[in-house]
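Hey, I'm writing a tutorial for new members on how sequence and structure tokens pair up, and I'd like a real worked example in the thread rather than a made-up one. If someone can provide the structure for the chain below, I'll link this post from the tutorial.
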Amino acid sequence: FGITSDENFVITTTNRKEITEDNFSELVQDGVTLYLLQSVDQMLLLATKERIDFLPHYDTLVKSGMYEYYASEGQNPLPFALAELIDNSLSATSRNTGIRSIQIKLLFDDSQGKPAVAVIDNGSGMTSKQLNNWAVYRLSKFTRQGDFESDHSGYVRPLPVPRSLNSDISYFGVGGKQAVFFVGQSARMISKPASSQDVHELVLSKEDF
């Protein structure tokens, strides 16, 4: 790597966790993306890409024929799909101490290449691992364990309040993806964790699949 003997450096995960002798076997696995940096909080000089590979959760097979949220006969399915798309925002902003902002924008210009639905919030943001796990079908957001770092870490279900929304819309971790591909052909998630300077982006494309 062209590092001189008197130069200091660190190796970190994409979540900026430094690799040490103690955590090496835990954090360094086949296929993991690592950063070689001068310091843990060093600015990235270029955008990096990380390929996501996963096997579908078994519920994808055993529950694939279940009645889905947008299949209500005789009802307009679009509101159900939009409700799924703001589920992440509801959870991400649930612990905000200041203003809680969630916006839904319909974009009909050429800035995205095609018309798009954009859901924007000022929530806690997702790490690269959490963004990775959002892409996994049928992985319950309340039961993710082991190597899976949930995008709903520390989430506490709110008490039921009449005429209000909480973040229990999508329980099995599949509704958001189904909503995306019901409305359009691709999804782009852009997220910056509140505790990090890094911006993470995930693209799911029906054409790429």
